[in-house]
Amino acid sequence: MTTRISKQKAPGDLLKIVREKADVDLSTCYQCRKCSVGCPVADRVESPPSEIIRRLQLGAGDELLQTGLIWICLSCETCYARCPNKINFAAVIDALRSIAVEKGVARPQGDAPLFNRLFLDTVRSYGRAYDLKAIVKYKLGTGDMKQDMDKFPSMLKKGKMAILPPSGADKGKVKRIFEKAAQNKGTGR
Fold it and tell me: Which SS3 state, helix, strand or coil, does residue 7 take?
């Protein structure tokens, strides 16, 4: 497969922005591909992690913001653990997501943004995740109430999901984390 890279008006603009937001030096990548080999979603996208890095190094433009990996990356940091130069690719992906949203270049497909927002809302409200509330709100938001409902009794029986909201979390600390994240939005710090 041939990948075309269209240079931006000033070559390296996207790389510069990513470097600033993610605080990562991509020039140390020598394309060993350990990140791509270990990536659990690399086989589901057209551009694996090593290719994203190489395209950034070569001065890729906004077309890079439309690659599927920036939306399905799990941020599991397997790539970071495998990288001999300790390049934090998850931070690079976060920066690319942020840039894509800011520029309105690409939108994720599916309901992942809805799920993420609802999940974080429960953490903000209760100080920790409240799966049942997040799932109910997600099901209402998507309108797909029946999918996976057969698994619910089994999850309750096995103690995988609580009916009552969690307690004992330091809500003040969680609130400060959300406030700090809002202040640093898009900086990767």
Answer: strand
